[in-house]
Amino acid sequence: MTKEQYIESLRKLNLKVYLFGELIENPVDHPVIRPSLNSVAMTYELAEMEEYKDIMTATSNLTGKRINRFCHLHQSPEDLIKKVKMQRLLGQKTGACFQRCVGMDAFNAIYSTTFEIDEKCGTNYHQRFVEYMKFVQDNDLTVDGAMTDPKGDRGLSPSQQEDPDMYLRIVEERKDGIVVRGAKAHQTGAVNSHEHLIMPTIAMKEEDKNYAVAFACPSDAEGIVMIYGRQSCDSRKLEAGADIDLGNSQFGGHEALVIFNDVFVPWERVFLCKEYEFAGMMVERFAGYHRQSYGGCKVGVGDVLIGASALAADYNGAAKASHIKDKLIEMTHLNETLYSCGIACSCEGKKTKAGNYQIDLLLANVCKQNVTRFPYEIARLAEDIAGGIMVTMPSEQDFRDKKIGHYVEKYLKGAVGVDTENRMRVLRLIENITLGTAAVGYRTESMHGAGSPQAQRIMIARQGNITGKKELAKKLAKVDETKNRK
Ligand code: SF4
Ligand code: FE
Questions:
Q1: Residues within a 6 A CB radius of ligand 1
Q2: Atom number of ligand 1 nearest to Cα 189
Q3: Whose CA is closest to atom 6 on ligand 1?
Q4: Closest CA to 351 of 138, 7, 77
């Protein structure tokens, strides 16, 4: 699809989206939602451009057709690297979360996992999923890959919860399909998606088998209700004459609480149904891919933030100060370290039994663990360089006011020759990424998106091979453990 076709295709959906307690008639043109839609639209726009063709498109292993890379099943380490490069590019172009990666990461995790379920259980999930992927690729769809359940009491398993709906579950099995109930929280891009692709959120035991479910359904399926997530400073988008105040008026991201009120799913869209022993594999693989993703998207937004900080220094007249130069070096060092991790886990990618490529899990988890820290430090340095005015500055309305605008113009001037409005715009962009609407994607999502820090530490512990490392040390130190007292 072209960008325009994508936008038109969303108009045809009959979504139930609530925002500020109201059902939104037209999400596509809603001022709070539209910037996030524009970010997804960029994934279509860039794919049409000759200069980005290699990075933004790929050849489908299923149909041999040229497809958008966001719908691709990775066929080599090179594909994995191009994925990260594509995400960095999109982060640079939007300065926000462009949402389409969750679907891509779900495609690749479900493709390989269904193959292995069928191998063990004699089911036919993989072929069903292949048919689904052809549908997605041929129609160039945006798909919300949905994993995170609300989880209720974190000390209790899905089946132990007081309210059995705290994890999404199968409530009825019919001849023609299943009926599901529950919710998925913080669903990135849900309102801008044609389809939802659901996965379980944790490894499960037999008593949780009704919760071991993966399926796809249209985003406007009967019984789905979406409640749009609030973001810091979001109501500025509803104000007239607040273009400067928005910092980035064109682009954004969004999350939604997606509720499944007894949604029917036909068998051809069910990809896991009660084979609880495979829930963990699906979760681990999806999380691995999404932890790789952050080595691309967060780096691209980081590039914008570093650029904005350098501009703020120029406009403040402070660019020559050695500590400013050093802070920009530090920000670059941190940002490129994240990128290095994203590239490294891609280079070390391995072929799965199904034939698509999986990133190196240890390196992807190290990537994400760094993402839980470095963007915070980059944001801290950006605020340091920008100065306090980035959060105390008067509004655009005051700046444009006939009576007092000249005061703002005069007293917010920075370096000689720099236009006051330009300075305000750059400072607001820094505010947007570090504290405003885009901070959801750049800050808190860096902490909790693709799994909170402890989830990566568990994986690092599992993959770190401490036993093997002990053997290395024993050999060099000439340790003879038979001499140890038992
Ligand atoms: Fe893509 Fe990053 Fe947004 Fe996740 S947070 S959907 S990886 S842009
Ligand atoms: Fe995310």
A1: 97-99, 101-102, 188, 253, 293-294, 297, 441, 445, 449
A2: 6
A3: 99
A4: 77
Largest interatomic CA distance in the chain: 88
Domain count across the chain: 1
Output the DSSP codes for 441-453: IIIIHHHHTTS-H
pLDDT in tens, 218-263: 999 999 999 999 999 999 999 999 999 999 999 999 999 999 999 9
**Quick one: which ligand is closest to 142's CA?**
1
Q: Nearest residue CA, atom 2 of ligand 1?
A: 297
Residue ID of nearest Cα to ligand 1 atom 5: 97
- 97 CA → ligand 2 middle, Å: 8
* CATH number reported for the structural domain that contains residue 364 in this entry: 1.20.140.10
CB-based contacts of 222, cutoff 8 Å, min separation 6: 263, 264
Residue 438 lies in a domain: yes
Tell which residue, 100, 186, 107, has the closest CA to residue 147.
Answer: 186
Please state the separation of Cα 322 from the chain's center in Å: 36
DSSP annotation string for 217-256: EETT-TTEEEEEPP-TTGGGGGSTT-HHHHSSSS----EE
Rounded distance, CA 91 to CA 433, Å?
12
Bridge-based pairing state of the strands 224-228 and 17-19: parallel
Residue 324 placed within a domain: yes
Cα of 167 vs centre of ligand 1, distance in Å, is 23
pLDDT digits (tens, 9 = 90+) for 108-167: 999 999 999 999 999 999 999 999 999 999 999 999 999 999 999 999 999 999 999 999
Distances 11 to 45, 191, 200, 224, 445 between C-alpha atoms, Å: 18, 11, 30, 17, 28
Residue 475 lies in a domain: no
Q: What domain range is 382 assigned to? A: 282-467
Q: What is the pTM of this model?
A: 0.98
Is 74 part of any domain?
no
Q: Give me the helix-helix angle, 361-371 and 322-347, nearest 10°.
A: 160
What does the alpha-carbon distance between residue 78 and residue 346 come to, in Å, rounded to a whole number?
8
Please report which confidence band the pLDDT of residue 486 belongs to, taking 50, 70 and 90 as the band edges: confident
Cα 39 to ligand 2 centre (Å): 14
Q: How many residues does the chain have?
A: 486
Q: Residue 60 is encoded by which pair of tokens?
A: 């489908």
Which of helix, strand or coil describes residue 484? coil
Q: In testing the pocket of ligand 1, which one of 40, 294, 303, 440 has its CB within 8 Å of the most ligand atoms?
A: 294
Distance (angstroms) between ligand 1 centre and the Cα of 314 equals: 30
Q: Using CA atoms, how far apart are residues 90 and 122, in angstroms rounded to an integer?
A: 40
